[in-house]
Amino acid sequence: MTRLQKGSIGTLLTGALLGIVLVAVVFGGEAALSTEEFCTSCHSMTYPQAELKQSTHYGALGVNPGCKDCHIPQGIENFHLAVATHAIDGARELYLELVNDYSTLEKFNERRLEMAHDARMNLKKWDSITCRTCHKKPAPPGESAQAEHKKMETEGATCIDCHQNLVHEEVPMTDLNASIAQGKLVLKPEDDGDDEEADEDEDEETEEADDSSDSESASSSDNSDDEDDNNDE
């Protein structure tokens, strides 16, 4: 074996060893950065962690999901998405953690809508892949829900377009398609149906109050008549 051949073999072995080390570091680092302990090592993330444990998602399917199960795409086929999420979103949130004061829940809530919208936009971009990991082929009851689910096939809708505020503290819902088109956070318009129902409830309460008032007046009148009769006697 010539010196050149020995050198080539040595180079290949060294390259293979470095490749193995690099893969181990990348996969090991990804796993370490996805643990709930790492996510909640920032004080601000302890707030949403507590909300998760109080939500209907926690233990609903016999398991207790962690941060990564919703916010980090899982599986080797989505590994590039997980790495990109840690590299881009992780770096941004680390910077915001340093420049913002999250020492109280009230201060955290000042940026809650913005953070919720960022998470929703990620899910939109991923076609809600982390939702689908558990919720496979959902078959919702009711014609209205079934019609909305058909939009996933006909209009490119995805889970997060409708299913918001399921785990963490409620914030205004955002229109993700409009947000993408306009390049900024766009809130969903309020449902007029809720206002109509509220008006109907107020009308019913007013009618009940009027009926109650009429009954009291009638009762008072009857009592007055009885007293007059007694006086006449």
CATH class of the domain at 12-135 and 143-169: Mainly Alpha
Query: What class, by secondary structure content?
Result: mainly alpha
Give the averaged pLDDT, no decimals. Answer: 82
Fraction of residues in H or I helices: 55-70%
What would the principal axes of the Cα set say about the shape? globular
- Enumerate the spans where pLDDT stays under 50 for 5 or more consecutive residues: 192-233
Distance between the termini: 138 Å
| Second-tier CATH architecture of the domain at 12-135 and 143-169 | Orthogonal Bundle
Main beta-sheet annotation: none
| Oligomerization | single chain
- The CATH topology annotation of the domain at 12-135 and 143-169 reads as Multiheme cytochrome fold
SSE string: HHHHHHHHHHHH
Number of helices: 12
Question: What Rg do the Cα atoms give?
Answer: 30 Å
Number of strands: 0
In percent, how much strand structure appears in the residues?
Answer: under 5%
